[in-house]
Amino acid sequence: KNPCSKLACIHSLRLEMEQQDEPALKVGVFGGSFNPIHLGHVLLAVTTQQTKPIHKLLMVPVFKHARKTNLLPFEDRVEMCKLAVEPFAATSGGARVEVCEIEKQVGQSNAPMLKAIRKKYESEVGRKIELYWICGE
C-alpha cells in the first residue's frame, strides 16, 4: 500500500471540510431583456449592489425572449449592459457587478439558467453559492 495516497486522501478530505465551513457566496441574479438597458435597470442593479448582503450581482440578458420578438442583437445588449454598469463593476463596499452571457449557452430561461449559474460559480469559487433573484416589473 502507498502511504502517500492515504496522505493525499486525508488532505483532500480536510480541504473539503474547510470548504464546507466557508459561508456561501451570495449572488444576485438580475435577468431581463435589457432592450435597451435604461436608467431604471441601472438604478435597481446599483441599489441592490449597495444595500443587499450579496457578494456579486450578475446581469443576465435574455438570449431569446418568450414573448418579445423585436430584440436588438444579443451581443449588442450584452455590450450595452457592460457599458452601463462599468462604473459600478468593482465598487468597494458593494457587490461586484458583472454581465453574464450564460443564457446564450443554455438557450432557455430561469430554472436551467439558474442551475447553470450555480454550477459555473460553485466550480469557480470552490464553495456553495446562494442565488437571489432580482426582478423589476
Which percent bin holds the helix content? Answer: 40-55%
Order of helices and strands: HEHEHEHHE
Structural class: alpha/beta
Largest sheet: 4 strands, parallel
Given as residue ranges, the uncertain stretches (5+ residues, pLDDT < 50) are none
Write down how many β-strands occur, each being a DSSP E stretch of 2 or more residues. Answer: 4
Supply the number of helical segments: 5
Kindly report the average pLDDT value: 81
Question: Could you characterize what this model shows?
Answer:
- It is built from 5 helices and 4 strands; from the N terminus they run H-E-H-E-H-E-H-H-E.
- Strands 3-2-1-4 form a 4-stranded parallel beta sheet.
- The termini are far apart.
- Helices cover 47% and strands 18% of the residues.
- The model has no long low-confidence stretch (mean pLDDT 81).
- With 137 residues, the chain is α/β, with parallel strands linked by helices.
